[in-house]
Amino acid sequence: MAPIQATVLIFCRLLAFVVLCPIFSQQNFPSLAKIVIGMALTVLCLPTAPAIPELSLFMMTVFVIKEVLFGMAMGYLSQLVFTGVEIAGQLIDFQVGFSMAQAYDPTLQIASSQYGKTYYWLTIAVFFGLDLHHRLITALLLSFRIVPLGSVVIQGTTVEGIVKLFSQMMVMAVNLAAPMIIALLLVDLVLGVISRSIPQINILMMSLSMKTAISFVVFLLLLPNVLSYLGKHLPDTVRYLQEFIKSFQ
C-alpha cells in the first residue's frame, strides 16, 4: 500500500506543478494532456523519491494537501519570469495606445494586446531554444531529494525569498520595457511641440499612426537586445525554483 500512496503523492505534486508552470498553464492546453504529462513525470521521478511508511486516511489527506500546495508554489515561481515579460509588454501597449484595443486572450488568461502577446511567445521560443525545459525537469527531480513527500514546512527564509523574487520580477519588467517607453515618450514630446506650433493639425489621429509605426521600428531595432536580455534572465526561472526548493533544507 505504501508504494501506491507514494506514487499518488508524487503525482499530486507534479500535476499541481504542470497546471501552473510556463506553457502548460495556458487555458487552451488540453486538461487530458496535462494529466498525461503529470503521469509521465511521475514515472520519471518515482525512482528518486524516498520511500514512505504506510499512511492512515487522515495523514494521507494531509500529505496530499501539502504536496498540491508545494507543487502549485513551484509552478507559480517558475512562471515569474514569464509574468514579468507579460507586464513589460502591457507597459509598452499602454504607452503606444494598444491598451485601448485590448481583448481577452484565452491563451494568456488575461486581457492582452499586441506587444504583450509578442513578448510572451518570444519568451517561450527562447525558453525552449536554451533547453531550459530539461533543466526544469532536473529541478523537479531535485525537489524529491531535498523535500521528501509530506515534509513541506514553510520557513521564514522561504517567505522572504518569495517576496524578493516578486521585486526582481517587477525590476525585470521595467528594464525590458524601458527603452521602448523612453522612445515613445520622446515621440509624445515631439507631438506636443507640433501641437503647440500648428494647432490646426489633428494631433490625436497623427499620434496613433505615428506611435504605432515608430514602436514597430524601435521593436525591430531592439529585437537583438531583447533576445539577449531574455537569454540572460530566462535561466533565472530554474534558479528561482532551485533556491525555493533549497530553502526547505
TrEMBL record:
Parts of the chain that traverse the membrane: 6-25, 32-52, 166-191, 212-231
GO cellular component: bacterial-type flagellum basal body; plasma membrane
Signal peptide interval: none
Membrane topology category: Multi-pass membrane protein
Annotated localization: Cell membrane; Bacterial flagellum basal body
InterPro entries: FliR, T3SS_IM_R
UniProt record, GO biological process: bacterial-type flagellum assembly; protein targeting
Keywords linked to the UniProt accession: Bacterial flagellum, Cell membrane, Cell projection, Cilium, Flagellum, Membrane, Transmembrane, Transmembrane helix
Function field: Role in flagellar biosynthesis.
Family: Belongs to the FliR/MopE/SpaR family.
NCBIfam families reported for this sequence: fliR
Name of the protein described by the UniProt record: Flagellar biosynthetic protein FliR
